[in-house]
Design brief:
Elements: H1 6-10, H2 13-17, H3 26-37, H4 58-81
Length: 85
């Protein structure tokens, strides 16, 4: 490492990967200590906490939006034809 500048020497990933002893992170140490005292129960991988209700059809949503737009257009047209000015 004699020809490297300070940045390369500080962030040399190959040197870090070649370390004989790798210390676990603080969270890993905390969980290991907690689980040694009381191990967690089995849990399925990424289980949904609550069942999901079925969604409405996309056609129903489209009809609802288009119906609202048509109602708004009719309301604006009615207000413009019955205005006093």
């Amino acid at each position: 490492m004699t020809g490297q500048d300070a940045f390369d020497r500080e962030f040399d990933i190959q040197w870090a990967d070649a370390a004989l002893h790798k210390e676990p992170s603080a969270r890993a140490r905390m969980l290991a200590a907690r689980w040694k005292a009381s191990p967690p129960g089995p849990a399925p991988f990424r289980a949904d906490p609550d069942p999901v209700l079925p969604r409405r059809s996309s056609w129903a949503s489209t009809a609802l939006v288009l119906g609202g737009v048509v109602a708004l257009i009719l309301l604006i047209g009615y207000a413009r034809t019955h205005s006093l000015y």
